[in-house]
Amino acid sequence: MRMRATTDGPASVEADVLAVPVYKDETDLSGDLAELDAAAGGVIHDAIAWGEFNPIEHAAALIDGGSLPAGRLLLLNAGLRGRAGFRARRLAQVATRQLNGRGARTLALWLRDGEDDDAFAAAAAGAVAGTYRSTAIYGRVRDTEAMARSVDEVVFVGGASQAALDRGATVGEGILFGRDLANRSANDLYPERMAEVARALTDDGCEVEVLGPEQMEELGMGLLLGVGQGATHEPRLIAVRLPGWKDAPDDRRLAIVGKGVCFDSGGISIKPSENMGDMKHDKSGAAAVIAAVRTLARLAPETPLMAVAPMVENMPGGNAQRPGDVVKAMNGMTVEVTNTDAEGRLILADAMTWAERQGATHLVDVATLTGAHSIAFGDQVSAYFAKPREWGDELAAAADRAGEWFWEMPLVGEYRASYDSPYADIVNSGTRDGGLIKSAVFLSEFATVPWIHVDIAGTAYLNADKPYGPKGATGAAVSALVALALEYGANSR
Is 271 noted as a catalytic residue in this protein? Predict the structure, then answer.
């Protein structure tokens, strides 16, 4: 998809479609929106008056362009004002998604509020993301040539720099890559297959290392191996390093660690059958970190970054881990397994320890870790925990720039007592109350450097089609990780 900026105003820009945001409080047109409506011959006013578009109820409406050079107007529900990056990305995503399968080739996007380069970059990423079709992976018959039509070029009305638009487009491509990985079925993408995906990143200049079960056993990764011991497909630990990792200062190496459960049945503590098929998305954290490192290899290969993806299947086989088993972590701690469905924190714990021993001085882990996240935050906001909080502030700022919505949660050390075990150093599943926070408290036991835990259980995939995306993976955290790593790399030089 081509991206370019124009100095033309919205009333004079030429395109097949001009996308126009309308905020919820703008049922009475005024200001710049009234000026555009006058130039168009009143078509926006008429669409609202006739109920073709209601900024309170409708996500979008495609109407005639009236007297404008743009053939059609796409009115977009912009919601409430604020969160410029999030709003810009969402508007662009809705705009291109609404035009998928239609004849529009050129889209002009008017963001209206004089956004800066970060917001334009977020919008460019959203424009690419909006073209995503989950059926393109497996829909050989259903995915017709007409359905595959999408916008070829997005023209940004305003002061965007080409560099920001190009950066955003590259991030958008990374989001699509991550979504494909997360959406691939468990019989298609299991641990060794994910390792093959990672090995292909050598073409982007990355160094790739893959550990198998024997190597993990030698290193003492009892938590990771225990989760995967019941599955036919054996675990893997994948590490992808950018060229900048090797030559980085000893105190400036960032590792991003993603939970990679290719399928999560719950193990012996088996999940209910309803919606269990969505558990192929339990590898969304791994998909995010691999997509992020691939994107950064193309944007800033000098970044001192390593992506680590512990990959397993959590299955109830004859050799599966049992409730009551005691396993030993790579850092020496013993863990009593009280719930085999609390497996993500186990594989992350060993992966985080390994990353530190490889030289990581800063950690971020990303995981579809708890159902409690979905209950508390839904599908719009990712929760994060940080030690120290200043390190978390950097990620939150990066997420804002990238157009993602992250929210800090407290790391309550007093909850550590709920993990006490009569047999081992710690249990893997505490009491149910406060489960979102307690999962982070468990992970904090395995981080000795500045660390952030991001729970994307609610934001990693959609349970139904939305105006901004189809059912399935969303690519959550990819752009935030890229933005954080770019800033981190700039501060390392």
Answer: yes
